[in-house]
Each structure stands twice: as C-alpha cells, then as structure tokens.
Design goal:
By secondary structure, the chain is α/β, with parallel strands linked by helices. It has one domain: Rossmann fold, CATH 3.40.50.1380. Helix content is 47%, strand content 12%. It has a 5-stranded parallel sheet with strand order 3-2-1-4-5, sandwiched between helices. Helix 1 packs across helix 6 and helix 2 runs parallel beside helix 6. The protein is globular, with a radius of gyration of 14 Å.
C-alpha cells in the first residue's frame, strides 16, 4: 500500500466518508475532463465496480471501451433518473466534476443528496485518481499503471 493511497483512505475514514471497495460508481464529468477520466473509470471497472454515467460521459467511456449504464439527469427518463439512484442508495461512490453552466443546478441537487446520504463524492480528477489508488490499496491490489 503506497503511503499516499493509505493517507487518502485514512483521511476519508476520518471525515466519516469511508470509500467503498466494491459496488456501483457514478462517473459524470465535464467535457474537458472526459479524456482524463478514462483511465480512472477503467481502473474502477478492473476493481469490480459497476459504472453508471450520464449520456455524454457514457459516450466518452464507450469510445474508450469501458462499459457503463446510462442514467438521466432528468426525471421520468426511461434509463433511470440519477437523483433517484442517489436517494435510493443504489450508488456507492460519485465522481462528478462541475460543469459551471447550463444544467449545473441539477448537479448541485445530486451533490446535496449525496452529502445528505453520506455517500462519497469526488469533484476533481485528482481526487478521483487518489480515491481509486486508495480503493486499490484497501483491497490489497497492485496497480498496473
């Protein structure tokens, strides 16, 4: 276990937000972050996580050969409403980098719901990288990167 991965895992636990070592992870990132999320998402899949993503991120993941389940930002969509998945505790980890325009108010609702349910929420690519390293370390697996 690398010292930085262990430190991140311990810091998460100390804040009351234990990182999951398995389960369902949302990956929904802004356009500039889409290329940088691919190795992180790939590693989450390698660690056994089932990925959920919004349409734009889903397309980016698919172009990188990474499977994910599409979820909608809007209520009533056939693929499932993201806020419902958070409220029903279907998701165990959320990675969502801010958009800062347009539908950003919707993202604020997701984040508020995640915080209210004590779900780990990562809002930067650097944080997502650190979280994945910490999860890998907690599982006792070596990174192949």
């Amino acid at each position: 276990m690398t010292p930085s991965a262990l430190a991140f895992a311990k810091a998460s636990i100390a804040t009351g937000l234990s990182l999951p070592v398995s389960g369902n992870a949302l990956v929904s990132v802004n356009d500039p972050d889409k290329p940088r999320i691919l190795p992180i998402a790939r590693e989450l899949r390698e660690l056994g996580f089932k990925l959920f993503s919004t349409v734009g991120t889903h397309q980016a993941l698919a172009s990188g050969g990474i499977d994910s389940v599409v979820v909608s930002k809007q209520a009533g969509a056939p693929e499932g409403f993201l806020l419902d998945l958070i409220n029903q505790r279907v998701l165990d980890l959320l990675i969502n980098t801010p958009v800062h325009y347009g539908s950003a108010w919707e993202e604020g609702r997701w984040r508020a719901a995640a915080v209210a349910r004590n779900l780990p929420l990562i809002t930067t690519i650097a944080g997502a990288q650190a979280a994945v390293q910490a999860i890998r370390a907690m599982k006792g697996q070596r990174s192949e990167r």
